[in-house]
Amino acid sequence: MKDNANENTIDPCLPGGLMPADQWTLPETSVRRSLKDAIRHALMQLQAGVSQAEESFENMDQLPELSTAQQRRLAPEPDYSHQALAIACALECARSEGSLSREVICLVAPPFSGLQQALAHFSEPFRSDNRENSVDALRVISPPDTLLLDDQAAREWWDNQDLSRPWVIPELADFWLRCLSGLALVKELFRRIANGDAGAGIVGSSSWCWQYWGHYIENAHMSPWTTAPMNSERLGVWFSHLAAGGSKSSITAKMTDNGLYVLPLVEPEEVPSGKDSNEHKESNKRKYSTFLRDLSATSRGNPGVALAIWQRSLRARPDEDARLDDADQKSQAQNLNADCWVVPLNRLSLPLMPQSKESVTGFVLHGLLLHNGLDAPSLESVTGVSAHELSMVLSRLKRAELVAFDQACQCWRVTAIGYPTARRHLQSWGFPVDQF
Amino acid sequence: MIDDLGIKDAFASITGQAMLKALLVIVIASLVTVAIQKVLPRIAHKLGGRPRLYLLASVPLLRLVIILATVMIVVPILVEPSFQNMVAIFGALALALGFAFKDYANSLIAGIVTLYEMPYRPGDWIEVDGQYGEVRAINTRAAEIVTPDDTVVIIPHNKLWNSLIANGNDGTDNLMCVADFHLEANHDVGKVRDLLRDIAFTSPRTKTWHPVSVIVFNKPWGMHYRLKAYPFNPREQFQFISELTARGSAELARQGVKFVSVPVAVD
Questions:
Q1: Which of A180, A215, A428 sits opposite B48 (nearest CB)?
Q2: Which partner for A83 in A118, B3, B141, B229 could form a disulfide, CB atoms 3.0-4.6 Å apart?
Q3: Fold of the A352-414 domain
């Protein structure tokens, strides 16, 4: 939609907008980078038996990492209410263009894309000064306390939900468990959608969960939509937007190895209003690094993964550390060009897969991704791994920084920084993986 | 007779130095072959998935290339590679093999055909003459398979000419497994089929992007169900079938569907 139709009006909250899932493509990367990654992955698998790395992340340069406050300012977590508004506007736009006509819209995105958090904000009415559109609040459907229901109980549960006014399910993965009595709720939901008994709504789903149900329900053809992949340009726009935090300040980021620019992005050809033409010429003379392109390929265009790696790659120079700290204490609205330095991707060590029985580790990681996080008892029932073995595997994966325990929802999740490693290993072990 | 064939003339020029050279080439080739046979399968087992199968399949092929290269290097070292000498040597060799090692030669030739036609490759699960197992190695004369009971069975390649060879995965990592259920009649067939399909879909070992199907036959003694699905790793086929059978049986029992309780002859 926005991706094809109007690239010039990139929404920094949702760069690239929404698009049909079957049009999603992997961000481009160089052949050199692809080969390097493939060889590195094969070597990592071979070395698994030789060295047992306990440390997942290693700082391989001498520059100090950013303090928490600096990181919060230069690479903060996104405000999902803005993203929710951008999604709502994109859906409205697609409806008005006629490219989206279904009553129930399915939005599918890979884990860490922020879709679930954004859809959760649909329960509040949106209104923004910058936008013409305002969107009414939707009713958020939350899963029942127990997911183990038979077909009759699932029918009764859905009968009790008010589907007469627009609704939203932020994450479909919260409605099922991969065990015999854990499928009924989603089966019943899809049956109602297919029969047109579900009213108007939005179903948000993690790509892993969607991939499973796409195979389970043959000939479903829900024509899901997804967020556009984050290519280098979109990543640049998004990171700049996050660092600006609503102000008009810009972030300047350079590579630590060669001083090439990462941010701000190259200016468009026309001289923007309010900018000096000399300043514009100067910005066009800058030499840019390929960091963002490599990052978009490493993260497979996944914004959450890209942000996690970006946060890890930022550095401050010792002499600038104090200056940046002072700046943090001052008003954030102050127009300050906050310089930071970026470590090349090949000097960053992403989490490594610990050596263990492939199948058990694979069951655990696959189970967590299918359900977008699970507590230990549920994980035990969907993987068939005993509680004792499960706790050992989880503790190893936690030390390797591939999974983390989410205190808020009391469940285990794959980490954003560990997701590329987990996905790649699951794929090479023969597990079904998502399309993104 | 040797004189008639020109063998004596062909070997007349062999010197001690040439013999040593040839021996050195053969030793080096043997060491390279042994190294390939040891190292590549180890690397393959660490990689898993398709790269594992490709790497395993390359072992016999590489060995054949090394053998051919060795022959091509050694023969000119020992004898002058003239047309007459070549005819003499290979003629004599063929005669000797034909008479003395007929079956052995038969297996060697079948081994070469095996590498070309690839009816089985290392990593494949095959059944030959009632023996089922994973192909561990394809040697010059015979293939080695390891049965599920961890017994190595040597299968001469010449079985290729006159035996039926069943290959479960045929060079891929897709191997269909079947769990059988023999049930008493008088139950809701549609419900049981749905239930068995769910059993396969909820197994963490199932490749969900491959078809899962439930076939049912009406037999004189009741209903015979066959649940067919693909495990993500062919090596886990027996755990997979066991898991499907155990979970299916438990759920069917919970639903009140009874298994046939008398011994029956199943064809």
A1: A428
A2: A118
A3: Arc Repressor Mutant, subunit A (1.10.10)
CATH 2.40.30.10 is held by the domain B108-172: no
Residue pairs spanning A and B at CB distance below 8 A? 66
For B46, the closest of A48, A212, A431 (CB atoms) is A48
Return residue ranges of chain B for CATH 2.30.30.60: 108-172
> Is B46–A45 a contact, with Cβ atoms under 8 angstroms apart?
yes
**Tens-digit pLDDT profile for residues A208-261:** 999 999 999 987 788 899 999 999 889 999 998 888 876 777 788 888 888 888
Nearest-Cα distance to chain B for A44, in Å, is 10
Residues A209-223 pLDDT 10s: 999 999 999 877 888
ipTM for the predicted complex: 0.79
Nearest residue to A239 (alpha-carbon basis) of A170, A318, A308: A308
Determine the residue among A213, A359, A369 to mutate to test chain B binding: the one whose Cβ has the most chain B Cβ atoms within 10 Å.
Answer: A359
* Crossing angle between the packed helical segments A232-244 and A291-298, to the nearest 10 degrees: 100
* Mutation site for A-interface testing, chosen from B198, B212, B243 by largest number of A Cβ within 10 Å: B198
In this prediction, residues A391-406 reach a mean pLDDT of 94
User: CA A81 → CA A77, A85, A115, A408, B250, distances in Å?
Assistant: 12, 6, 11, 19, 47
Beta pairing class for A201-206 and A104-109: parallel
> How many other CB atoms are there within 10 angstroms of residue A160's CB atom?
8
Q: Would you kindly state where each structural domain of chain A is located, as residue ranges?
A: 68-76+230-347, 103-222, 352-414
Computed on alpha carbons and rounded to an integer, the radius of gyration of chain A in Å comes to 23
By the 8 A CB rule, do A407 and A359 touch?
Answer: no
B208 vs A432: CB contact, 8 Å cut-off? yes
Query: A103-222 has which fold?
Result: Rossmann fold (3.40.50)
Q: State the pLDDT confidence band at A315, using cuts at 50, 70 and 90.
A: confident
